[in-house]
Amino acid sequence: MRLLPFILLLLLSCRLFAQGDIDNQDKTFWRNERAGGLTAYSNGWSVGFYDYRQTNPGKRHFIETEFGGYKDPKEIKIQNYYVVYSPYSFKYGKINCNWHINAGYGYQSEIFEKRDLGGVSIGWFIAGGPVLTFCKPIYYKIITGVTQTGYQTVDKKFDITMTSNDIYGKASFLKGFDEIKLYPGLYAHGGFNFEYSRNDKVTHTIEIGSSFTGYLEKIPIMAEERNRQFFFSLFVSYKVGVILDPLKMKNDFLYNLFNHKKDKS
């Protein structure tokens, strides 16, 4: 019985020592990472790929590429209610589908360090680069007459003189791909990230922030003069990543590039 307090003290000491080992595992949080993510903007959406390289404790450089699209606040899906049993819906006044691809370079810095696998790290980031938007014309099925077998239609682009009663629905999505126009621009975004993974191989991150994109001319989404040339939005994103083994990265281009810059400085 006299040994019981000693055994309890020994077990408690071992537990505290083990927790200290978890807290000090620098290799766990020295992270080179590749991640994919989904982002919801106040005026659109995107999916992206991100490659992070850590050159100093708590500081990382990264490259990113994203594919997404803009949504005009006036886009409202409707049907022609004068057409009996209409199978089609459309967004009245929309003249172009749009998609954009951006590729940028960024910097990330940690504000609060993650002490163990059950914790949360908080950081800030900023990134920017070129963006290219593709606009494809939308064709509509315009009613030209009514027969005993149904409606006669012709495929046309939207015209401001058309009313919703003139439109039977959208034409084939494939129509208009040979008329795509390109709109180059620049973008920048930044915000805060919260990494909360309980795994030292996989990361889960929530980001919030704001984004600004500017083009050389207006992006024609709707049939109106108030189409925008500059886009400001708020966003929230979710990213899941995989930690890369630094011992297997000797021939990695980005790893050597960032560490070469570090060695020079």
Provide structural commentary.
This protein is mainly beta. The protein has one domain. It has 3 helices and 13 strands. The chain has helices spanning 3-23, 26-29, 253-264, and strands at residues 33-41, 44-56, 59-70, 77-78, 90-91, 96-112, 121-137, 139-147, 150-157, 167-170, 181-195, 202-215, 230-243. An 8-stranded antiparallel barrel has the order 1-2-3-6-7-11-12-13. It has a 3-stranded antiparallel β-sheet with strand order 9-8-10, with no helix packed on it. A two-stranded antiparallel sheet has the order 4-5. The radius of gyration is 27 Å and the shape is elongated. Residues 1-28 have low confidence and may be disordered.
Brief summary of the model shown:
With 265 residues, this protein is mostly beta strands. It has helices spanning 3-23, 26-29, 253-264; strands at residues 33-41, 44-56, 59-70, 77-78, 90-91, 96-112, 121-137, 139-147, 150-157, 167-170, 181-195, 202-215, 230-243. β2 and β3 form a beta hairpin.
- Number of domain modules: 1
Termini Cα gap: 63 Å
Mass-distribution shape: elongated
Low-confidence stretches: 1-28
Rg over CA atoms, rounded to whole Å, is 27 Å
Count of alpha and pi helical runs:
3
Order of helices and strands: HHEEEEEEEEEEEEEH
**Main beta-sheet annotation:** 8 strands, antiparallel, barrel
What's the overall average pLDDT, rounded? Answer: 83
Task: Determine the strand fraction and express it as a percent band.
Answer: over 45%
Across the major sheet, the strand order is: 1-2-3-6-7-11-12-13
What's the number of extended β-strand segments? Answer: 13
Percent of residues in helices:
10-25%
Q: Class by helix and strand content?
A: mainly beta
